[in-house]
Amino acid sequence: MRAVAYSIRSFEKEPLAIANRKKHEITLISNGLCLETAEYATGKQAVIISDRDQITPEVISRLAQLGVKFIAVRSSEIHQVDKQATSQHNMKLAVVSPFVKKDGSTSSLNAYYTQCANETIQNLDTWQNERCEGDSCSVAKDCGSHIISNELRTRLNA
């Protein structure tokens, strides 16, 4: 799958490259996703964003015009993405699960970025293999991940 990852910081590059194992063609850029930088998604099927990117309906519309079908968020937060707009443009959206150790404590930053990278690549793998099934997607499981698909349009509009 061809993707562009926005808002990449230097310490995120290695975990993402290791998790990817050259399976997907991912362009890494440090710029955040906005209307002006959406053009980097030309020819890409997916965008990978951080919790710092504010994804407005205008940005989503532009991404859809460019052919983007998937948005992977490198965070367990999804508040920065206009979910109704993603649904209206038939885009799929996935987040990574929050990382908590078995003893209940939070992880080290290194472990957190490794998990984010692994789950982000897992989401791309799932989409590429056309295994995403909306609310019942195998990515969602019980891990806290959340998939927004066309199926949720009715609920989002309610």
Automatic annotation (TrEMBL):
A GO term for molecular function: D-lactate dehydrogenase (NAD+) activity
NAD recorded as keyword: yes
Keywords recorded for this protein, A-Z: NAD
TM stretches of this protein: none
Protein known as: D-lactate dehydrogenase
Species whose genome carries this gene: Arcticibacter pallidicorallinus
Lineage, opening ranks: Bacteria, Pseudomonadati, Bacteroidota, Sphingobacteriia, Sphingobacteriales
